[in-house]
Amino acid sequence: MVDKKTSEEILRGMDEAAEKAKDDFNTLPEETRKLAAAWVRKWYLKAGYKRLGRFLVAYAKSYEAEQPKD
């Protein structure tokens, strides 16, 4: 388990890295930013749909297990 101090250091480091990435992103040419943003949207939606699919499969299995057998 991660102690509170280590957890805070990790979160601070993540915030700093996110700020650096945002600054770096803003220095890219506009066309490159558009392409990168489109790729991220596509990837994020795909990952979201996969998670939703796994959730629905797990829910269906648990629902079926709770139903009385005839």
Topology as a string of helices (H) and strands (E): HH
Instruction: Report the principal-axis shape.
Output: flat
Largest sheet: none
Radius of gyration: 21 Å
Query: Which structural class do the helices and strands define?
Result: mainly alpha
Strand content: under 5%
Number of domains: 1
- Tally of individual helices: 2
- How far the N terminus sits from the C terminus, by CA atoms, comes to 46 Å
Percent of residues in helical segments? over 70%
Whole-number mean pLDDT: 83
* Uncertain residue segments: none
Beta strands, count: 0
Q: How would the blueprint of this fold be written?
A:
Blueprint: H1 4-26, H2 30-66
Give a summary of the structure in a few sentences.
This is PFL domain-containing protein. Helices cover 86% and strands 0% of the residues. The protein contains 2 helices and no strands.
Written account of the structure:
The chain has one domain (4-66). It is mainly α and 70 residues long. The mean pLDDT is 83. Helix content is 86%, strand content 0%. The N and C termini lie far apart (46 Å).
Question: What key phrases describe this protein's structure?
Answer:
flat; 0% strand; 70 residues; mainly alpha; PFL domain-containing protein
